[in-house]
Amino acid sequence: MPPAKSFKAVIPAAGLGTRFLPATKAMPKEMLPVVDKPAIQYVVEEAVQAGIDDILVIIGRNKNAISNHFDAVPELEVKLKDKGDDDRLRRVMASSDLADIHFVRQGEPKGLGHAVLRAKAHVGDHPFAVLLGDDLIDERDELLTLMLAEHERTGAAIVALMEVSPDHIHMYGAAAVERDGDDADVVTVTGLVEKPKAEDAPSNLAVIGRYVLAPSVFEILERTEPGKGGEIQLTDALQELAADPDGPGVRGVIFRGRRYDTGDRVDYIKAIVQLAADRDDLGPDLRPWFKEFAAGL
């Protein structure tokens, strides 16, 4: 895909990571390693792979490790170069050269909608993608490029959807949809409900952590009152867009590929296992061990 020069990317990373305490007492949850890279690097790489090279990370207090990770470390680079450790040197420098990465503080964590609103000055009049760091999308599966293309085609707000078990829909925003074209995996979103009970969910299509939005969403977020949990919910702004008969509306791209949830401790461990097992440098040693380990349980 040609570079998405008109798009910017926003990565909210101001959460406290309480589910991973005490590991996140001093380390941002976005810096927890997934095999040998911090989770947030996978997200930045996804945006870059889709052609976006201007990225804003929304951070909170004690998140300086994130900006340090994407900065150059000359003393480390010199040491690796002197040792002739070219492979590690290449990997260290890669994280510094990924994209034009900026940072802004959220201040108080008032919800995802508030975090997105903090990007207003940087985004300006550009359309932009929002990528949540809890959801890692396998680089072998296409999602963000499809969402960018659908936004360019329609002007609509685009959300990523994924079919989940009805027993799990209460953990997500759920979408009411209409199928209105030849592409079964692109739908019109007619409504959104934040974390509904299973019996109240309009479908089993869950909103996962990828959005493509027009800058006009900032006007809506500025007047959006705190909703569920006392926070400014991005879902509420999207609901308003979906209900506007005169606007471009909201479209959903249904993702059927590999997604790794790093926001839960068990799923975080599963993500590491899955990604490590698929790697050429680690998988051959790990896969036989997994079988032996599982057989002994």
TrEMBL record:
Catalytic activity of the protein: alpha-D-glucose 1-phosphate + UTP + H(+) = UDP-alpha-D-glucose + diphosphate
Keywords, ordered alphabetically: Nucleotidyltransferase, Transferase
Domain Nucleotidyl transferase: from-to ranges: 8-275
Gene3D superfamilies: Spore Coat Polysaccharide Biosynthesis Protein SpsA, Chain A
EC number: 2.7.7.9
Top-level EC class as recorded in UniProt: transferase
Family of this protein: Belongs to the UDPGP type 2 family.
NCBIfam families in the record: galU (TIGR01099)
The name this protein goes by in its record: UTP--glucose-1-phosphate uridylyltransferase
Protein species of origin: Microbacterium terricola
